[in-house]
Amino acid sequence: MTDLPPVLPPLRDVIARHGLQASKALGQNFLFDGQLLARIAAVPGDLADAEVLEVGPGPGGLTRALLAAGARVTAIERDRRCIPALAELGDAYPDRLRVIEGDALAIDAPTLLQGAPHIVSNLPYNVGTALTVGWLSAEWRPWWRSCTLMFQREVADRIVAAPGTGAYGRLAVLAQWRSTARIAMPVHRSAFTPPPKVMSAVVHLVPTEAPAGVRLATLERLTAAAFGQRRKMLRQSLKGVTGADAAMDAVGIDPTRRAETVSVDEFVALARVLDG
Ligand code: SAM
């Protein structure tokens, strides 16, 4: 026999009772639609007894969906006002929710969790981007199993962008050299309270084997130079990168091409020659 899910008060009541008016400074745009939240929680796949790290649970809408999906959640929330509301949720799901008050940018998340967690988060986009870049830049294989992250649509498009598109740049190369990145679902601005100015999308990242023999620092130096002058030919934009001409020659990349046309694999191949 399976346990019935706990009956929880409506999120809007929780917000009113705990005085959780959305704070602009903390980038708070809350989600209330239970069906949408359940769809987001389903993006990582089956969460029964899975470890999940949630960053920025706020009043706990997404946390509810994760717990209902059977996850064990560790949540990091910066806004002290939300902690009592989250504690109530923890009471409804004994031993399944651990809440840590603090700034996720300053917390060493891997030390909090045993085993590789799924990361699921609806964060302010600047915090989300900084964390994601950190998670993708750390030692590989990573300590996390997958990332399901809300971004403003424009940032989501830059993460999953293919070569030859205007959105393709450093973020796409960084995300895609070590993970498979896709947009799991668009999210309309009206789904949030208060609604942000722009549309959002949930991005799903699954780590892959990192290409061998390449240092992230080299790849970053290359992409910074190449996309720093994205309209220029590579022979011009890569002038400041020692060995770039010989590397393009070795890999068979025409130096009259522009950064936008260079695939992730080609950037990796260039970096490998530079590192060789
Ligand atoms: N997850 C909730 C939802 O979907 O309704 C809230 C989302 S709201 C966009 C972002 C949440 O992240 C807020 O609760 C905010 O306080 C929290 N937050 C912002 N910056 C943070 C940081 N650096 N570390 C941890 N939490 C943060």
TrEMBL record:
The residues that the entry says bind S-adenosyl-L-methionine are N29, L31, G56, E77, D103, N122
Identify one Gene Ontology CC term for this UniProt entry: cytosol
Concerning Gene3D superfamilies, the annotation shows:
Ribosomal RNA adenine dimethylase-like, domain 2 (1.10.8.100), Vaccinia Virus protein VP39 (3.40.50.150)
Which protein is depicted?
Answer: Ribosomal RNA small subunit methyltransferase A
Q: Family, per the entry?
A: Belongs to the class I-like SAM-binding methyltransferase superfamily. rRNA adenine N(6)-methyltransferase family. RsmA subfamily.
Q: Which gene encodes it?
A: rsmA
What subcellular compartments does it reside in?
Answer: Cytoplasm
> What keywords are annotated for this sequence in UniProt?
Cytoplasm, Methyltransferase, RNA-binding, rRNA processing, S-adenosyl-L-methionine, Transferase
Q: Which HAMAP family match?
A: 16SrRNA_methyltr_A
Function recorded in the entry:
Specifically dimethylates two adjacent adenosines (A1518 and A1519) in the loop of a conserved hairpin near the 3'-end of 16S rRNA in the 30S particle. May play a critical role in biogenesis of 30S subunits.
Enzyme group, top EC level? transferase
